Amino acid sequence: MQTQSKALNFEGQNIYIGIDVHLKGWNVSIFTEHLHHKTFNQVPKAESLSTYLKLNFPNAIYHSVFEAGFSGLNAHYGFTNPGINNIVINPADVPTSDKERRRKTDKFDSRFCHSERSDTDNYRH
Questions:
Q1: What is the CATH number of the domain that holds 73?
Q2: pLDDT for res 63
């Protein structure tokens, strides 16, 4: 008789994370290859995000992106240590329309960072 496993396993699946970095908190948007999982605010610690990802998306391949800013590369090094593939983008290089500039929010920024990362990954394959 076969038994059904209730354990989560995202082995081989890509998880994309867009992060809008601020001093007191990060706005994080998480996407799977096919859908938007969640957008939330969290404490500015890479370890907290890594723990969340490993708990909710075990064995996945994690890709994150955030805009360069005041924090320098501390967050970048924090992401790469626990095995998250991270890139840092220049905010000026992110194309935006006038409509996007007028409705600019931290939530929008984190979602836009995700789309930049998933587009970059598609070009690499």
A1: 3.30.420.40
A2: 94
